[in-house]
Each structure stands twice: as C-alpha cells, then as structure tokens.
Amino acid sequence: MNLETQIVAALTGIAATTPFADANPATRPRITYQTVAGGYNENLRGGGPYRGTRQIDVWALSYGQAHGLADQCKVALRAGLNVGSITDNPDDYETDTQLHRVSFDVAAWLK
C-alpha cells in the first residue's frame, strides 16, 4: 500500500478524493492531493520507512464549508496514517470556478 492509497482511504468518506490532475471541477465539494516531497529515511542500519508530504486541498462553494471539511480531513488523516506533521497553507478563492480552497500539507510515514 502506498501513501496515496492511505490518503484516499482516510478521506473518501468526507468528500470525493482524487489526485489534483484528475479533479472534476463539477464535483463539489471535493478533495484533491498532490506530492510535495517524499523519500526513505536512511540511517546507519539501512533504509527506514517511506515518509512523504502531500498537499491536501479542500474545495467547496463556501469558505465555511471548505474550512469545516478541512478540519474533518485532518482528524481522519491522523486516525488513518502515521502523521508526522500537518501544516496549513494559504486559503484561496477561484473566481472562474467560484470555489473556496482550504489547503494544508500532511507529512506521514507508511503504516
């Protein structure tokens, strides 16, 4: 199982969850994710577990809904993954889609 599979499993119950590149703009609300960084933690005994950072974006028609869903996502990710940190990113509003975006990064190890 890879990190993306674990993310989708944790978030699908909240809203439709897809890679950013596969997002359907008509799906509202929705959650997208994309890779920020990742790698194996090396130590003197060899390779450690994979640790990756993924940007999670929550899209909704109102800021309140997007923010509430993002809070639910953070709880679900902590319950479903070995989370090292969650860092908030700037929020956004897209005038062309009329969607609010609440964004954060999650750094996690594979279970």
Order of helices and strands: HEEEHEEE
In what range is the share of β-strand residues? over 45%
The secondary-structure class comes to: alpha+beta
Largest sheet properties: 6 strands, mixed
Q: Could you give the distance between the termini? A: 9 Å
- Oligomeric state of the chains present here: single chain
Number of strands: 6
Report the total helices.
2
Tell me the Rg in angstroms.
14 Å
The overall pLDDT average reads 92
Molecular shape = elongated
Can you give the helix content as a percent range? 10-25%
Low-confidence stretches: none
Describe this structure in words.
This protein has helices at residues 3-11, 63-80, and strands at 16-19, 30-43, 46-60, 82-88, 92-94, 99-109. A hairpin with a 2-residue loop joins β2 and β3 (46-60). It is 24% helix and 49% strand. It contains two helices and six strands; from the N terminus they run αβββαβββ. Strands 1, 2, 3, 4, 5 and 6 form a six-stranded mixed β-sheet that branches. α1 (3-11) packs across α2. The radius of gyration is 14 Å and the shape is elongated.
What's the SSE blueprint?
Blueprint: H1 3-11, E1 16-19, E2 30-43, E3 46-60, H2 63-80, E4 82-88, E5 92-94, E6 99-109
Parallel strand pairs: 1-2
Antiparallel strand pairs: 2-3, 3-6, 4-6, 5-6
